[in-house]
Amino acid sequence: MKNLDQVRAAAAAKVLPEGGIHPFNRSDVVGIPALILTSGLLAAGAFCCEDGKEKRVGMKNAFNAIADFLKSRGLTNASTGQSLITDLAGQNSLALQRATTEALAFLAYLKRFAKKPANI
């Protein structure tokens, strides 16, 4: 039986495999926790998943990873960031609070495992 930290770390390692291709880098992830804490998970998701924003593609990919993780934990049925917003907006406040807590904990691992941008 695994504890929650092991589950989160394994999910982050699956998204960001060592030596594999990463859909985002550390700079894409580092600001998302602060955005969630100041604006909430739904507003952060809306910002990260906004269509037509080329500079936020990495953030969108990170938010898609959050949605996939929350789905694997049974907190939502959404597998993309955009559908996560819709799904959580229709649930009660306790479900949103649980999803926010899990998302922040998962982001800590994503941030640690993500590679630094090549130009830094």
Please outline the helices and strands.
Layout: H1 4-15, H2 26-29, H3 32-39, H4 41-48, H5 57-72, H6 81-89, H7 93-113
Helix pairs in contact: 1-7, 3-4, 4-6, 5-6, 5-7
Question: What would the keywords be for this entry?
Answer:
120 residues, globular
Describe this structure in words.
With 120 residues, the chain is mainly α. The relative contact order is 0.21. Helix 1 crosses helix 7. The chain has seven helices and no strands. It is globular, with a radius of gyration of 13 Å.
Short description:
With 120 residues, the chain is mainly alpha-helical. Helix content is 65%, strand content 0%.
Enumerate the spans where pLDDT stays under 50 for 5 or more consecutive residues.
none
Succession of helices and strands: HHHHHHH
First and last CA, distance: 40 Å
From the helix content, strand content and strand pairing, which structural class follows?
A: mainly alpha
Treating each run of at least 4 consecutive H or I residues as one helix, how many helices?
7
Fraction of residues in helices?
A: 55-70%
Biggest sheet character? none
Count of strand segments: 0
Radius of gyration (CA) equals 13 Å
Beta-sheet strand percentage?
Answer: under 5%
